[in-house]
């Protein structure tokens, strides 16, 4: 199937996107983000606050080894991660329903730029101070009775949007 080895993956060109998980409690969601991140060769996953880190049997159940291929860093808080991202010149967008958010289909990432997206806690979402420190908010349009989606589903939609625009 012409799959990359972990070493080849680490050397390969990456989608210039970092996914920041802000207090995500489900290790299955964390593992799923790693697996989707591997599929689209994202740059890294930043694990913040209470978000679990590898090695973890629960993360591995859904990551299936992607926690070994995708680079990751742990931070005490998403605010701490944003400082590092901003210092590196990376544009940061929180994925949240917020006043003034940009609908995902209207957001066009620019080639040559690096981006980070922040996904929040399954119940409380992205911390307000992280939203305030972000360059903006992205919102996935929804047409049903619910006003949120699972974190890993959201990550897949967001990563795909960046991949189809930037690859």
Structural features, described:
With 167 residues, the chain is of the alpha/beta class. The protein has a single domain, classed as 3-Layer(aba) Sandwich (Alpha/beta knot). It is built from seven helices and seven strands. It has a seven-stranded parallel sheet with strand order 3-2-1-6-4-7-5, with helices on both faces. Helix 2 links the parallel strand 1 and strand 2.
Concise account of the structure shown:
With 167 residues, this protein is an alpha/beta fold. Helices cover 37% and strands 21% of the residues.
Write the layout of secondary structure elements.
Elements: H1 6-11, E1 15-22, H2 27-39, E2 42-48, H3 57-63, H4 66-69, E3 72-75, H5 78-87, E4 91-95, E5 102-103, E6 115-119, H6 128-133, E7 136-139, H7 151-166
Parallel strand pairs: 1-2, 1-6, 2-3, 4-6, 4-7, 5-7
Helix share, percent = 25-40%
Name of the top-level CATH class = Alpha Beta
DSSP strand content: 15-25%
The CATH architecture classification is 3-Layer(aba) Sandwich
* Structural class category: alpha/beta
What's the name of the CATH homologous superfamily?
SPOUT methyltransferase, trefoil knot domain
């Amino acid at each position: 199937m012409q799959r990359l080895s972990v070493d080849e993956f680490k050397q390969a060109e990456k989608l210039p996107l970092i996914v920041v998980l802000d207090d995500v409690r489900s290790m299955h969601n964390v593992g799923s983000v790693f697996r989707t991140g591997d599929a689209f060769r994202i740059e890294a996953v930043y694990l913040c606050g209470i978000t679990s880190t590898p090695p973890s049997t629960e993360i591995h159940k859904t990551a299936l080894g992607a926690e070994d291929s995708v680079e990751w860093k742990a931070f005490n808080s998403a605010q701490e991660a944003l400082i590092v991202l901003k210092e590196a010149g990376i544009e940061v967008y929180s994925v949240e329903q917020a006043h003034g958010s940009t609908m995902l289909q209207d957001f066009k990432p620019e080639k040559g730029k690096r981006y980070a997206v922040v996904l929040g806690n399954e119940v409380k979402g992205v911390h307000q101070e992280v939203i305030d420190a972000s360059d903006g908010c992205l919102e996935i349009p929804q047409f049903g009775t619910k006003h949120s989606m699972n974190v890993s589903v959201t990550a897949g939609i967001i990563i795909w949007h960046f991949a189809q625009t930037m690859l």
